[in-house]
Amino acid sequence: MRPAQRSHHETLALRQQLIGSSCKLFFSHDPVKIVKAKGQYMYDENGRQYLDCINNVAHVGHCHPDVVKAAHEQNQLLNTNSRYLHDNLVDYAKRLSETLPEKLCTFYFLNSGSEANDLALRMARQYTKHEDVIVLDHAYHGHLTSLIDISPYKFQNLEGQKEWVHVAPVPDTYRGLYREDHEDSVTAYANEVENIIEQAHKKGRKIAAFFAESLPSVGGQIIPPAGYFQKVAEHVRKAGGVFIADEIQVGFGRVGKHFWAFQLQGEDFIPDIVTMGKPIGNGHPLACVATTKQIAEAFAATGVEYFNTFGGNPVSCAIGLAVLDVIEKEHLQAHATEVGNFLMKLFKELKTKHLIIGDVRGSGLFIGVDLIKDQAERTPATAEAEYLITRLKEEYILLSTDGPGRNVLKFKPPMCFNMEDAKLVVDTIDRLLTGTTDQKTVESDTGSLRCISFCTTGVMQSP
Amino acid sequence: MRPAQRSHHETLALRQQLIGSSCKLFFSHDPVKIVKAKGQYMYDENGRQYLDCINNVAHVGHCHPDVVKAAHEQNQLLNTNSRYLHDNLVDYAKRLSETLPEKLCTFYFLNSGSEANDLALRMARQYTKHEDVIVLDHAYHGHLTSLIDISPYKFQNLEGQKEWVHVAPVPDTYRGLYREDHEDSVTAYANEVENIIEQAHKKGRKIAAFFAESLPSVGGQIIPPAGYFQKVAEHVRKAGGVFIADEIQVGFGRVGKHFWAFQLQGEDFIPDIVTMGKPIGNGHPLACVATTKQIAEAFAATGVEYFNTFGGNPVSCAIGLAVLDVIEKEHLQAHATEVGNFLMKLFKELKTKHLIIGDVRGSGLFIGVDLIKDQAERTPATAEAEYLITRLKEEYILLSTDGPGRNVLKFKPPMCFNMEDAKLVVDTIDRLLTGTTDQKTVESDTGSLRCISFCTTGVMQSP
After folding, report:
1. How many CB pairs under 8 A join A and B?
2. Contact between residue B282 and residue B64 where contact means Cβ atoms under 8 Å apart
3. Per-state percent for chain A, helix, strand, coil, to nearest 5
4. What residues of B are in contact with residue A316 (Cβ under 8 Å)?
5. pLDDT tens-digit profile of B295-352?
6. Regarding beta strands A408-411 and A400-402, do their DSSP bridges make them parallel or antiparallel, or are they unpaired?
7. Alpha-carbon gap, residue A279 to A212, rounded angstroms
8. What is the Cα–Cα distance from B20 to A460, expressed in whole angstroms?
9. Of the four, A287, B47, B77, B455, which is 20 to 30 A from A137 by CA?
10. Which chain B residues are within 8 Å of A144, Cβ to Cβ?
11. B182: left (phi over 0), alpha (psi -120 to 50) or beta
């Protein structure tokens, strides 16, 4: 019934004709057509192999055979809603519970991180009977109406900030309000939240939740200083609010040392609600909210049913279980630590050579390389980052940028990304920064090599 | 890694321990454990076969081999986001566009009907620059924060009606404000909407959208009189608003005569936005919004990207295409007309025998059987309906109720539901209504047989 494979030109033309133009393409001036993928590699219609440094959804590797097999076996047997008893649902909840602090023992399954964050918001409000939400600046929590409201990254371009939303500074010790030279950035950043709460209270407003990614991603691949969440949680809970950790981009072992990124803050920190998405199903639409008995009970006390048509169906749960199995079986957490450390080491070495590299930060395979125009002001090297990304694509390496300055190279590859891949990327970036024949370079005031001739193809941020 | 199949008791215990109690089970006092399904049949852990009269998600039949095959083939090849060009995305949009009026030519793919309705709402507001929404009473449009606000079925039990929401009476000519004896129920119901708009304007409010299921389902399996949508659309568009047809439960040929339920209103009616979900992927989390170029362009004009991580991935689109193929190949639309007409004919015959049957209405395999206590008042026979559903389950027939009175037996089976299935259900209901040894019956004032002894197990409405 379907036509044979369309030409690149034809696919693009049909896309422009039929798909809403709000849905953007990577490299919109010269988009890539991908027809196949395996592990950390993607292949275009001409069989060219691309190294994928950015797809954190294909968590255990594109088209992992164990995940594909689990989906197929369950698809042949049963795929129905969660109003019937099924082992996959409870087995999956049980397995997830084993990765979390004991307190987070009640689960809800959904189809996307956005659905999870929306539910978390509803729960926080139901439990606290408060309305207001504190978020971090530049945060992105999803595409739904309720989430655009709590996403400064989005609402700043739309109708603006709602009266029930409060924006706290990102605990970014490199480019933020309090930096690495501050004597106690943890307390200073947490005090900002305390101050927001006080101001809100003065206006008669009440805090339902502090809502943050455990590691702010769109915000610029930020690693909040350890202890920050504990102090924030103290302030927020004192105000009757809850702490929601958005693990949609950063959970499932990506940070290496821990299974969940919030655990980087220390063992004494436990969020009240955790949301999961993206990598959870290796591409299958799946998401989860985990919370405490108390919050779950308050949510149920309204008597209103929560029904999610596809959420928690046997196929989704089989896939979720298979992803957990692969992470364990292939020791992907340890692998992320090893490869991530190696990649950061290489970039830190490169930093001594190219002053455009201002900061290298990360944990496991969640890494940001912050490009700057000058050492003093740390001005984001936006155009240079864009140029680099575009040139890398020509070298068949898919990388992207993040941060309000769009100057942070973000690494969040499939977890099977290996040492050779790391070396290839860093070597290529070294070569591109060193200057090749097709770019003019100038000696900047601080001595760093900067690209002043760059393409302006539409590279965009991607959560 | 996983335990062997758990006992019914163990699965239930783990579910109660791990899954939020807001997520309800069918027949919660004696839930069914389903381990397998095929076509219109489901099987429990003891191999008992149930006839499924309610799962409108397993649209072309549970575990349809063509759909399973399409998923598996694509899962092995590639599953990534829609920021790369891919044929499945454009092929699928093209195929869907062929089922719709030409004007509805721009597509967005998502993971759930709720996501689709939320996007439709955002678009309507962006396009009209208005805020308010008119919905039908008892409507249910999804589980998200923004959708509970426009779902009287839900918000009546929660914090109540927002100032930007207006509730119009359901165009129900059997139990509604204007009935079959009204000389012009179409105009009368549409005038109610006109009146709401006038009242809103007096308060300085502006209408963004009229948002309705093409056939109100949770509202009680209602068939709005033909011509109603045209008149409503006229009023709403005059006020600068748009018409959103929610086809999540009722689209994809279910109504038999047409592919979309809004087409029952007549060829001269075209919504501005159509939302699709549930049956679209035969259980796979998939949804779609179709709209006009104008609305899509207004939505894009904000410059804010719309990115849905899983939406429109090659696997989801392959599955969506396979579902369309099966509907066509197996002539399921014609089949729905034939079997649906037969089922309604049988129920209409039964109506002459059992006065508890007040109304039989429907189109294709979307059918409601309205049970009443008395002919004069048409009082909903809520308890009787619940009893019937519970007894049917004991006869291995899965049926459910809908409507504010929970008295409407709703048929929305997989589209392969056949004549024998129809006969079996009606014969069984006949037998149960006629009275068996395990129920006491009384002659009601209007002569109908009513069950006065019934179980009170938790049967619930399900959208």
Report:
1. 352
2. yes
3. 35, 20, 45
4. 285
5. 999 999 988 899 999 999 999 999 999 999 999 999 999 999 999 999 999 999 999 9
6. antiparallel
7. 18
8. 38
9. A287
10. 115, 118, 144-146
11. beta
